[in-house]
Structure formats: structure tokens, C-alpha cells
TrEMBL record:
InterPro entries linked: Band_7 (IPR001107), Band_7/SPFH_dom_sf (IPR036013), Prohibitin (IPR000163)
Protein name: Prohibitin
Compartment(s): Mitochondrion inner membrane
Keyword Transferase in record: no
Primary location class: mitochondrion
Family: Belongs to the prohibitin family.
Keywords carried by this UniProt record: Membrane, Mitochondrion, Mitochondrion inner membrane
Length: 128
């Protein structure tokens, strides 16, 4: 790490200097994509981290609890149309971020949450 810090001080190219270190804010984690290995199974936490430019790329994830409103139009037992908006609080599990990134991608919430909330809401409305 000491070599990377000294190299970043001596480097006169701003783009390379910027790519040598990444600062992770509180409530964020990163998965490292390496061009030779692929997605590493290591999750990087808060703080300053050094990466090899053009070889390693950090993919940032927000792991704070966030709300999401999902509107659903469903039918009731007596065949009436019901408009419901469900507010879901969600966050990814930090240790599972490499698996989430490789299977679902960076936009995992757009792929997973609507289908789960639609299914759960329709089951609840029909049963009442």
C-alpha cells in the first residue's frame, strides 16, 4: 500500500491519480471487479482503498435501509379493482453483495422488489 501512495503523489496524470484510490462513504460497500479474476468474493467497507487502475474496478452499493413505494392494481374477492401502494423498507445483506451483483446486477431492487410485492399483495387482498 505504501508504494501505491507514493506513486499517486508522483503521478502527474490526474486521471491515474484519481483511479488509484477510492473513498467509501459510510453506509456504502463495494464489490471489486478484477479484469483477470472476475468479481472477487471480498466486500470492501468504509474508508480509503487503493485499486490498480484499469485492472480493478469498485462497484458501489448502498447498504443503508431505504424505502420504496410499489403501486399495485389487484382484484378483491367480489371482483372489484383495488389500487394499493405498498411501502417497503429494504437493504442488501453486506456479505452477499458479490452474489447479488453476479446474479442480479447493480439494479437488483428493480428486478426483485416489484415481483415479490405484487405476489404478496395479491395474496393478502384475495384472502381478506
Amino acid at each position: 500500500m505504501k508504494i501505491a501512495v507514493e506513486d499517486s503523489k508522483r503521478c502527474n496524470i490526474p486521471a491515474v491519480r484519481k483511479r488509484l484510490k477510492t473513498i467509501m462513504d459510510a453506509g456504502h460497500r463495494a464489490v471489486i471487479f478484477d479484469r483477470f479474476v472476475g468479481v472477487k468474493q471480498v466486500v470492501v467497507g468504509e474508508g480509503t482503498h487503493f485499486f490498480i487502475p484499469w485492472v480493478q474496478k469498485p462497484i458501489m452499493f448502498d447498504i443503508k435501509t431505504r424505502p420504496r413505494n410499489v403501486p399495485v392494481v389487484t382484484g378483491s374477492k367480489d371482483l372489484q379493482t383495488v389500487n394499493i401502494t405498498l411501502r417497503v423498507l429494504f437493504r442488501p445483506i453486506g456479505d452477499q453483495l458479490p452474489r447479488i451483483y453476479t446474479t442480479l446486477g447493480i439494479d437488483y431492487e428493480d428486478r426483485v422488489l416489484p415481483s415479490i410485492t405484487n405476489e404478496v399483495l395479491k395474496a393478502v387482498v384475495v384472502s381478506k
